[in-house]
Amino acid sequence: MTSQLTASTANPVLRVPPASPAAAAAYFGASLAFHADVSDVAAALAADGDPGFVVLDSRSTASWDQGHIPGAVHLPTALIAEQARDLLDPAVPVVTYCWGPGCNGATRAALALAELGHQVKEMLGGFEYWAREGFEFETWEGRERRTADPLTAPVDSDDCGC
After folding, report:
1. Residues 6+ apart with CB under 8 A from 1
2. What residues are paired with 136 via a beta bridge?
3. Quick one: which H or E segment has residue 85?
4. Mind listing the pLDDT tens digit for each residue in 2-32?
5. Strand, helix or coil for residue 13
6. Euclidean distance between CA atoms 101 and 132, whole angstroms
7. Is the CA virtual torsion 119, 124, 125, 130 positive or negative?
8. Residues in contact with 83: Cβ distance below 8 Å, sequence separation at least 6, in sequence order
9. pTM, to two decimals
10. Sheet holding 120-124: strands in order across?
């Protein structure tokens, strides 16, 4: 006998049923086309050769000075429409970032770039997770690296296995 959950008896997770496998595959495949994670960006930048994309920090100058990804292009979101054509090659994909998961500045920057014809992804976690995962960053004083937060990165490995 198969038990059917109804809206009145389902737990909060299953109150709205999961999508079909085909719909889920389409959604998660699309998500990967729009997003990159901090570890994947760091690995691509650390590999020998051209990673095939440029990293764009969309925050203010004060935020940039506080810390940014080495090699990133600094272009605050408000200036993208007027300066992107001079700073970015439209043939090279762009990965945007801002402060962190609580900030949608990278999303706004990605939208502005897409509207200008750029291929673009948003880096999930932003600068916060870049620093929390122990990757090197630059400030106005020089380069820094923090110990990786064990809640965001594996303690004894470079690979989380994801």
Report:
1. none
2. none
3. helix 80-87
4. 455 555 567 999 999 999 999 999 999 999 9
5. coil
6. 12
7. negative
8. 75
9. 0.88
10. 35-37, 120-124, 94-97, 54-57, 73-74
